[in-house]
Amino acid sequence: MMQKRLWLMGLGTALALQPAAAQTKKAPTPKPKTVVATKPAATGAKLVETVVRKPGALTIPYSKYVLPNGLTVIVTEDHSDPLVHVDVTYHVGSAREQIGKSGFAHFFEHMMFQGSDHVGDQQHFKLVTAAGGTLNGSTNQDRTNYYETVPSNQVETAMWLEADRMGFLLDAVSQKKFEIQRSTVKNERGQNYDNRPYGLASEYVAKTLYPYGHPYSWLTIGYLKDLDASNVNDLKNFFLRWYGPNNATLTVGGDVKTADVIKYAEKYFGPIKRGPPCKANTCPRPC
């Protein structure tokens, strides 16, 4: 129950931090969820690296921490503008996919914006934009990242939103949302590759450089036949395999205090359970 209470507290904090106009909107009602009572996990962060600014050197100072659940947290302070950038990078991209299941990493990037157990459909966008921020995500062969740039007094909101979808996304993944986003991804492939002059050039280059079966031989958008053959359970299993805190790096930079960032990281990300072990992806050299 401790983990559930932390997320409900976070929801209250996120709404309280919104501008007055945003507070007039009715907050999404969390769905009931059965939580098995367990011993609260340790959430204390361990400092593992510090880089300081050196005279005459182009150095970005930062502090790196690791939570007990394996999440890496990097904080860099820059008080030149009252803005903060929050980024969560998952160390999974199209190179982690299997033959016949291409496009899953990019597909799941779309699903990450479709709500969670505590945030309604499209509410992630609305909460961030109402706070005066921007957000997006991207996928390549080796990583998928999600980020928000917000006013510095909204950093807790952004961190809670990222933690919420890391820990409570699957309850909101439905067959209807799956079908909508599959259609969106297929249209994206048609617009950016299949129906664009020279749009398939990069696909042919990848096939030429890398032999069949090499994880870099297909594009992150995937093949239409693989997207058509996929189902919602395939996508859920992809999330469970790769979207654990031990396979992610949280980076926060801007007008923040390191102590505050670590406090929020411990509060919201700390209770999330570690996922399956993730080894570095070693790809064979192309012929």
From TrEMBL:
Keywords: Hydrolase, Metalloprotease, Protease, Signal, Zinc. Gene3D superfamilies: Metalloenzyme, LuxS/M16 peptidase-like. Residues 232-276 form the Peptidase M16 C-terminal domain. GO terms for biological process: proteolysis. The keyword Phosphoprotein does not apply. Residues 1-22 form the signal peptide. Residues 73-192 form the Peptidase M16 N-terminal domain. This is Peptidase M16. It comes from Hymenobacter coccineus.
